[in-house]
Structure formats: structure tokens, C-alpha cells
Amino acid sequence: MTPRFVEVADRVHVLREPLLDVNVTLVVGDGAALVVDTLSTAGQAAGLAAAARAVTAHPWTVVNTHHHFDHCFGNALLAADPARPVYAHEATAEALRERPDEVRRAAYEEMRETHPELAAELADAELLAPTHAVRSEAVLDVGGRRVLLRHPGPGHTGGDLVVHVPDADVLVAGDLVEQGGPPAFEESYPLRWPDAVADLLRLTTPGTVVVPGHGELVDPGFVRAQQGQLAELARLIRAGHADGAPPERVAAEAPFGPRAALVATRRGYAELDGAA
Ligand SMILES: [Zn+2]
């Protein structure tokens, strides 16, 4: 069954793709629309395009929150013909433009055990690199609505962008905020991730609807609690590194469970060793 967009705030709609529980956000203005993230495959993106067309006939601009496959491998389907602008952080744009084979390979490796058919499709997906690179901030006019794209610093990746729609009090956080599973640390900056989440929290009000990369919509209280866990994890990583503790021992007592925390701890140690 093709997923549908659900309006979560004034002319802001969210679609949850069931396979990996990925959220896509659609912002509709007067004569223009914005699609945030494009899913994993051409097939998923075609479903997304049909779902968006059921909401609006306006041409869309695309934003990628980061370079992971489930957020940008649908770019070609959504923005190649007709050509539409695609915004991303400059590190995300660079990864998709300069290192598409590496990005495809990482996607394949991540999925090959749990979702072999998806993995095979990802391995030779047609990638479309972003056309507009954002360094720290950009403001878009989406049919009369002001939309802010902001890089809150390195966190889930080196190139995360959040999307703020102030007139509807919605913040699209990408994988900087995760609901339904632990944050993914494989390409993360665990020592700086808490600061990135603190930065995005400054865009919120008590009533802000926060769209995480995956899972249910959350509120700023949820985000603040996750920020606290990320800060605790970063503190444990620094302390363990200073004590010469093995990463496994740090991860055993860290938030998010030993498996995710071990990946985070290894990344943090490498950064503290000057290798990341
Ligand atoms: Zn991700």
C-alpha cells in the first residue's frame, strides 16, 4: 500500500515510509512546495511523488537532511525531470557529487543482511547530487512561507541540515533526533552531537512539532531528554578515553544500549586520538 501524507500542522504534511519508518515532510505554500527527504529507491520515491501530488499540484523544491540513502536516493525520481532545485549541506552535496560509489557501497553494506533486496537496489541506484549547497543557513521562500535551513554543527553526520517552518511551528530534525530506535552513530560526531541538538532546540517553542528522521512525531521535551542522553554519552566517552578504558567498558554503561554506544565510543575515541 502506498503511504500517504498526513497534515501535522498548517499545510505541513508528513509521510511515514513503512519499510524503514522514514519520515518525509511536505510544506505547501502559494504556488510552490518543499519536500524534505526523498526515501531510498526510485520505487519509494514514485510513491512519495504520487502522495505529494494527492496534496498539491505545485512544483517542489527538495531538501536532503543528510547523505544517508534513506533520505536522498529518491532525488533523481523527484528532481531530475523536470529539473528541480535540491538543497543540502555542503558536506552532503560533496558526498553525493564526489563520492557516489562510496555512498552506494555504505548503503549496500548497511542493508545487505537485514534487507537483501533493498541492498541490491541501493548498490546501483541512480544518485542525483544536490544543486544548492548550504554552509550554515539558508532562507527559502516557499510560496510566501519563510523556511529556514540550518546546519546545527556536526552530529549524526558532518552534514546535517534541519528545516524550520516558523509559521507552523514545525522543526524537521532529520536523524539528529530519533524516535523508535537509538541514534545511528556509524558516521557520527558523538562528542559534538549534543551541541547540535542544543542548537536546534533553540528554534523550538513549547508547542513545536518535531519531525524525527524515523518514527513518531515528538515534542521539545522528548528532544531535550535525548539531548541529555547524548551529553551523558559524550561525557562517558571523554572520561573513558582519559582513563584509558576499553570502548566496550564505556559502552556497557552508556545510554542507547551497548551496541549503539560502542559504535559511538569508537568514533569518539578516534576523534580524541585525532584520527576522525
Ligand atoms: Zn542517517
Rounded to an integer, what's the Rg over CA atoms? 18 Å
- Point out poorly predicted stretches: none
> The biggest beta sheet, please?
7 strands, mixed
What's the CATH architecture name? Answer: 4-Layer Sandwich
Beta fraction of the residues?
A: 15-25%
Number of domains: 1
**Highest CATH level, the class:** Alpha Beta
What class, by secondary structure content? alpha/beta
Distance between the termini: 42 Å
Reading the helices and strands in chain order gives EEEEHEHHEHHHEEEEEHEHHH
Write the CATH homologous superfamily. Ribonuclease Z/Hydroxyacylglutathione hydrolase-like
CATH topology: Metallo-beta-lactamase, Chain A
Residues in helix, %: 25-40%
Q: Which sequence of strands runs across the widest sheet?
A: 1-2-3-4-5-6-7
Give a brief outline of the structure.
The protein has 276 residues and is of the alpha/beta class. Helices cover 38% and strands 21% of the residues. It contains ten helices and twelve strands.
Q: Would you mind describing this structure in some detail?
A:
The longest helix is centred in the last third of the chain and has 24 residues, at 220-243. This protein has ten helices and twelve strands. The chain has 276 residues and is of the alpha/beta class. α5 (100-111) runs antiparallel to α6 (116-123), α7 packs antiparallel against α8 and α8 crosses α10 (258-272). It has a seven-stranded mixed β-sheet with strand order 1-2-3-4-5-6-7. Strands 8-9-10-11-12 form a five-stranded mixed β-sheet, with no helix packed on it. The mean pLDDT is 97. The protein has helices spanning 42-53, 69-72, 75-79, 90-98, 100-111, 116-123, 193-201, 220-243, 247-252, 258-272, and strands at 5-9, 12-17, 22-28, 33-36, 60-63, 86-89, 132-134, 137-142, 145-150, 162-165, 170-174, 209-212. A hairpin with a 2-residue loop joins β1 (5-9) and β2 (12-17). The protein has one domain: Ribonuclease Z/Hydroxyacylglutathione hydrolase-like (Metallo-beta-lactamase, Chain A). Zinc ion binds next to loops.
